[in-house]
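Q: What residues go here?
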């Protein structure tokens, strides 16, 4: 039996509606425990706030380093100094001599390097980010990427390796050149991160650096990325604006006989016309319609033709300047039933309760309880679909921390701080029966935590039901 992390995490009364899973957990003693994707018990209480406290006041202005000023840089060098300086502080605290980064978004975040070659699985790209800035970072890319490295990245030390050769020997040589071969090196080895190398290459790296102590630096990386700068927030705002205009245009075009793919084409054209990013990370919209495709959330748009009585859910949004959007709006073709309208009103009430709870100092679990409390008051908590009501968002659609169940969901103990960006999306479904034919009842908004509360970044398109008259 394949058990997903979400199946393991949901409340017991939700699992019991499916029958089999609850018995499975009780039989083997797993009920109520927390597991990660490897089946190991998770630490539900990482101290992200303790790590964030170490970064107070670090803006990179005191960091002295050699840097290029590339013509096509996404951000000014001051932004990258801030990021590097904050990473250095955490490397000092947790005794890392360098970060060895291989994933597209981490390399982009710290180096500014841009390319669509990340779509290729045959060539790796690596950033070495030493704790000592005098040692200096190094960017390793294949020969065909030399132009992109010079044109987009601030890092002056570049290793350009032959396109058809393996990168690992060049990484090992660069580590030795920096005197880091016996040091403690941090990689993206933990929960929520991915290594941009094959398992064979990771093995070669370990073999080639036998005296290095290679450990997970995932929480270090996640902490640095958790608080957005003012320049990041500008891009987040723009991505939200593009997304809302696109959804409004898509909903305005709805008609009987239109397929989900045709609606997706309207959404995509609108997003790219408004400035959404063309890159290896496409702007995305999940297009789902009910009852035609019951329970198919997070679905690719299909050839299903819409008809009167369908409810259409749009989830996702534009990527702009590297920053993703995640928000949900729903539309009905023709009037909804009384039950559908009532359930949707409850979902909006829960969404608003979460928004009202967001402010500095509250925990992620506090926000979760505010939303779930609405479902409890309406007698619908048994139809809560998942034990989170939202998550952070930035360069990735899903980032930490999660707005989740206290003591159960990873990072739910984290306290909110100004500069964090979240999506809130409490959801209920199945009140009409196990097939969810009436729809999935939720809206999703994107929020910026401010000094005194929060700012809703997706408030230009109403969260109320869009009813398309036919």
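A:
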């Amino acid at each position: 039996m394949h058990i997903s992390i979400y199946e393991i995490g949901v409340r017991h009364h939700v699992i019991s509606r499916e029958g089999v899973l609850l018995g499975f957990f009780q039989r083997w003693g797993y009920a109520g425990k927390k597991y990660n994707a490897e089946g190991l018990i998770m630490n539900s209480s990482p101290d992200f706030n303790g790590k964030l406290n170490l970064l107070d006041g670090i803006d990179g202005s005191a960091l002295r380093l050699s840097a290029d000023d590339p013509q096509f840089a996404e951000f000014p060098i001051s932004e990258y100094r801030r990021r590097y300086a904050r990473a250095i502080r955490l490397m000092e605290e947790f005794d890392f001599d360098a970060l060895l980064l291989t994933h597209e978004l981490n390399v982009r975040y710290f180096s500014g390097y841009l390319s669509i070659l990340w779509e290729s699985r045959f060539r790796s790209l690596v950033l070495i980010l030493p704790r000592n800035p005098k040692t200096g970072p190094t960017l390793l890319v294949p020969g065909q990427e030399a132009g992109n490295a010079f044109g987009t990245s601030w890092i002056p030390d570049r290793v350009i390796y032959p396109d058809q050769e393996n990168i690992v020997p060049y990484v090992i040589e660069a580590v030795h050149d920096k005197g880091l071969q016996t040091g403690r090196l941090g990689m993206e080895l933990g929960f929520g991160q991915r290594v941009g190398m094959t398992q064979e290459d990771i093995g070669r790296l370990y073999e080639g650096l036998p005296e290095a102590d290679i450990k997970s630096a995932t929480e270090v990386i996640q902490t640095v990325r958790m608080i957005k700068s003012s320049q990041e927030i500008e891009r987040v705002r723009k991505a939200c604006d593009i997304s809302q205009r696109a959804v409004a245009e898509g909903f305005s075009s709805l008609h009987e006989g239109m397929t989900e793919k045709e609606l997706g084409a309207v959404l995509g054209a609108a997003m790219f016309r408004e400035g959404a990013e063309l890159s290896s990370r496409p702007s995305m919209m999940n297009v789902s319609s009910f009852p035609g495709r019951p329970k198919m959330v997070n679905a690719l748009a299909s050839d299903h033709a819409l008809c009167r009585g369908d409810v259409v859910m749009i989830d996702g949004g534009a990527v702009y300047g590297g920053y993703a959007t995640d928000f949900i709006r729903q539309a009905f073709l023709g009037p909804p039933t009384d039950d559908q309208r009532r359930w949707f009103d409850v979902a909006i009430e829960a969404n608003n309760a979460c928004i009202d709870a967001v402010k500095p100092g509250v925990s992620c679990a506090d926000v979760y309880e505010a939303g779930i409390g609405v479902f409890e008051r309406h007698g619908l908590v048994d139809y809560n679909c998942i034990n989170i009501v939202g998550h952070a968002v930035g360069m990735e659609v899903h980032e930490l921390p999660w707005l989740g169940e206290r003591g159960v969901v990873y990072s739910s103990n984290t306290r909110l701080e100004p500069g964090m960006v979240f999506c809130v999306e409490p959801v209920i479904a199945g009140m009409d029966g196990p097939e969810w034919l009436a729809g999935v009842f939720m809206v999703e908004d994107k929020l910026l935590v401010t000094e005194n509360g929060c700012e809703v970044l997706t408030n230009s398109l109403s969260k109320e039901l869009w009813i398309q008259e036919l």
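A: Context that may help when evaluating the design: Confidence is low (pLDDT under 50) at residues 1-43. The longest strand covers residues 284-290.
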